[in-house]
Amino acid sequence: MEKFKSYTLGQLDKIPQLSGLSEEQIEEIKIVSSIYPFKTNNYVLEKLIDWNNIPDDPIFRLNFPHKEMLLTEDFEQLKQIRATGTDEEIKEVIYNIRMRLNPHPAGQVDLNSAYINDDKLEGIQHKYRDILLFFPSQSQTCHAYCTFCFRWPQFINDLDFKIQSKEIGPLLEYLHENPQISEVLFTGGDPMIMNSRVLDSYIEPLLKVDSIKTIRIGTKALSYWPYKFTTDEDAEGMLNVLAKVTKAGKHLGFMAHFNHPVELEPPVVKEAIDNLIKIGATIRTQSPLLRFINNSPETWTKMWEKQVQLNCIPYYMFLPRDTGAQHYFAETLERAHEIYTEAIRNCTGLASTAKGPVMSMTHGKVEILGVKDDLYTLRYVKHRDDSKTFKVFTAQSISPKPMWIGDLQEIKSEIMNY
Ligand SMILES: *Cc1c(COP(=O)(O)O)cnc(C)c1O
Ligand code: SF4
């Protein structure tokens, strides 16, 4: 049995594999980790990162913060104040840098809130008609943290940004009042951090709600800790709780987060996937397109083909949201569209099911359909006003290097008649 061992910033010096790095490299990790959350674990360190390829190894980039994730002036200011400032001064600099990194993009907090009468429900986001996001308080962490994570503020205690729920009662009441909701998507952090007992306390009551047809679980456990579904002490218990969903005649959808084909290679990943499929789960995959990690068409073709071989369904290629280190990880919209198209072109039909490149923004999820010079054709693959879902529209770039929907200006909305 593999025993889970995680390392956060305070334990950086205890990570054996880092002994090959220079002092300067370690110091950089520490500086950037004072802004963004950092966590790794023994599986990522031993099975995923290629330590002969540091710092360019994609999984190292995925898990270890690096200098360029901060703007040069912010990095330098932080470095300076850490060397010479008081605790108070350091804290203030950190706070100000974080605030400039747009910690809450796309109006998530206000626009997506759910209410019963006038009471706002904690830990629930209701953006689209038929599906609700649920953030159990016990899943507000992950087995390791991704450097590009758009939910990074949720993992920082000093920032009062947590979206979480400790109880299922209000959720059930809300579902009762909104029978049009047919899906609940567990998210976090990573819901697969929870143990089987806690998960059961959420799943069991949900299965009694007739209008709920699908339970989805958004998780990176298959990449960061696949033992969750194989040899962990609680693995069997976990599979038994999850199996209740399919036994109740509902759909169990795993939204598995994989960023690079390397994450699919260890044999334990296949075992974990097989165990989930045995209990009737369907595994769909998603990832953002990220510079330094997966920004070549070949990487995506390989990843999607391998996923099909493992019985997973490619689902979304996202673009990094306008928060945190987007400036570092994002490709331009044009290059993103090119990478997506080339990747799909080289795939077999069954591996070409992913929608993309997709931006999740205030009104919905927008897919880039085509680019010619500064003109873009786009489509809402999902809109908060469902009469607009799948509407096609055109836009023009208003930036020399458009990387997000805000860099485009709509020209014609709804170029379809229906
Ligand atoms: C992406 C997303 C969903 C799920 O969307 P699908 O296209 O059905 O996978 C649900 N709620 C929110 C807020 C989302 O961003
Ligand atoms: S697993 Fe998901 S929620 Fe957790 S750090 Fe990575 S992107 Fe963020």
Automatic annotation (TrEMBL):
Gene3D superfamilies: Aldolase class I. GO terms for molecular function: 4 iron, 4 sulfur cluster binding; catalytic activity; metal ion binding. Its cofactor is [4Fe-4S] cluster; pyridoxal 5'-phosphate. Keywords: 4Fe-4S, Iron, Iron-sulfur, Metal-binding, Pyridoxal phosphate, S-adenosyl-L-methionine. Belongs to the radical SAM superfamily. KamA family. This is KamA family protein. It comes from Flavobacterium circumlabens.
